[in-house]
Design brief:
Blueprint (H helix, E strand, L loop, with lengths): L3 E7 L3 H12 L4 E4 L11 E2 L2 H7 L18 E2 L5 E2 L10 H12 L18 H7 L4 H11 L13 H17 L4 E2 L7 H12 L3 E3 L6 E5 L2 E7 L2 E10 L8 E14 L12 E5 L10 E7 L10 E8 L5 H4 L1 H7 L4 E12 L8 E3 L10 H15 L5 H12 L3
Parallel strand pairs: 1-2, 1-10, 2-7, 10-16
Antiparallel strand pairs: 3-4, 5-6, 8-9, 9-10, 11-14, 11-15, 12-13, 13-14
Helix pairs in contact: 1-7, 1-10
Subcellular location: Cytoplasm; Golgi apparatus, trans-Golgi network; Membrane
Membrane topology: Peripheral membrane protein
Family: Belongs to the Rab GDI family.
């Protein structure tokens, strides 16, 4: 291990594994280590079900009615991925007119603006122009554009319109939903990017204790593990490895619920995402529900996993998620966790230590993708170009 690397990565959460893969594809010499013996970090998939009971200190063993423990792969932090990054068109003419406008919108073509200045006109003014009601506004802003608060209403509308376009194009890709979810749980994703990194020369070490991050003159120079030092020019890590360099900005409550039935009023869907807009439950932030099932190889036959999450706003977080839990009744078993929201204290450009954010309450990966792109830009000074990454890959392996 006494070698010098361009980049050392600590932690195998999805953010860290994606950045490890990206840096390896870009020709960097990468060493990737984790103190845990498994992939996924904070967002790991837990199997068998008995391990979930132990993790949450639930007494006893899962009842026989829950099937074989090995049939379960329970994500601690489930998140859907956008298939391309609308739902069925509503009958209301005004909303349809708005969706047509969004579909035709091109921020580079003023002919598509229809009197709206995307850099000056607020989204509140756009909704007013199309005479949309409050329920439709709540749905559009929180379920389509995936905003967590209503602050966006008074911002220039360009970003919101592009977010809704992404949702529409993602839906068009597969027809029933704009989201994807991997079989056997999200733990498969970090492993996939780990394999990508390895293909391009990256070195992986699991179950590797990290004794010290070595900094000289304010800049990282290496990592010490089991008495050996690996030197590096840059370091990527999750907050758990650098607790003195992160700060708490809030908390998230998550409740994993095991069900024997699909959620009511969802047409017996095998999976779904429900977003309860914050102003409909007198809150500052939305409440999220993600449901998956045996169809995704994450639960025993006939069983469903629903995870409720939200940003904590009071001293009684369990009361805050009651509106969502009521949608899921009856619930066979609940697993409750409250975790801190941690963010880096600085950008990392001085120390060259680039720290990811902990996962927020959302049930989609859009905010995580933003963090990945932000870290990449801070490390390289340039925007991440996914098409360029695909070209590099295809240069070696040919077109997919």
């Amino acid at each position: 291990m006494n070698e010098e690397y361009d980049v050392i990565v600590l932690g195998t959460g999805l953010t860290e594994c994606i950045l490890s893969g990206i840096m390896s594809v870009n020709g960097k010499k990468v060493l990737h280590m984790d103190r845990n013996p498994y992939y996924g970090g904070e967002s790991a998939s837990i199997t068998p079900l008995e391990d979930l009971y132990k993790r949450f200190k639930i007494p006893g063993s899962p009842p026989e009615s829950m099937g074989r423990g090995r049939d379960w792969n329970v994500d601690l932090i489930p998140k859907f991925l956008m298939a391309n990054g609308l739902m069925g068109l509503f009958e209301k003419r005004r909303f349809r007119k708005f969706l047509v406008y969004v579909a035709n919108f091109d921020e580079k073509d003023p002919r598509t603006f229809e009197g709206i200045d995307p850099m000056k006109t607020t989204m509140r003014e756009v909704y007013k122009k199309f005479d949309l009601g409050q329920d439709v506004i709540d749905f559009t802003g929180h379920a389509l554009a995936l905003y967590r608060t209503d602050d966006y209403l008074d911002q220039p509308c360009c970003e919101t319109i592009n977010r809704i376009k992404l949702y529409s194009e993602s839906l068009a890709r597969y027809g029933k939903s704009p989201y994807l979810y991997p079989l056997y749980g999200l733990g498969e994703l970090p492993q996939g990017f780990a394999r990508l990194s390895a293909i391009y020369g990256g070195t992986y070490m699991l179950n590797k204790p990290i004794e010290e991050i070595i900094v000289q003159n304010g800049k990282v120079i290496g990592v010490k593990s089991e008495g050996e030092i690996a030197r590096c020019k840059q370091l990527i890590c999750d907050p758990s490895y650098v607790k003195d360099r992160v700060e708490k900005v809030g908390q998230v409550i998550r409740v994993i619920c095991i069900l024997s039935h699909p959620i009511k009023n969802t047409n017996d869907a095998n999976s779904c995402q429900i977003i309860i807009p914050q102003n409909q439950v007198n809150r500052k932030s939305d409440i999220y529900v993600c449901m998956i099932s045996s169809a995704h190889n994450v639960a025993a036959q006939g069983k469903y996993i629903a995870i409720v999450s939200t940003t904590v706003e009071t001293k009684e977080p369990e009361k805050e998620i009651r509106p969502a839990l009521e949608l899921l009744e009856p619930i066979e078993q609940k697993f409750i966790s409250i975790s801190d929201l941690l963010v880096p204290k600085d950008l990392g450009t001085e120390s060259q230590i680039f720290i990811s954010r902990t996962y927020d309450a959302t049930t989609h990966f859009e905010t995580t993708c933003d963090d990945i792109k932000n870290i990449y830009k801070r490390m390289t000074g340039s925007e991440f170009d996914f098409e360029e990454m695909k070209r590099k890959k295809n240069d070696i392996y040919g077109e997919d």
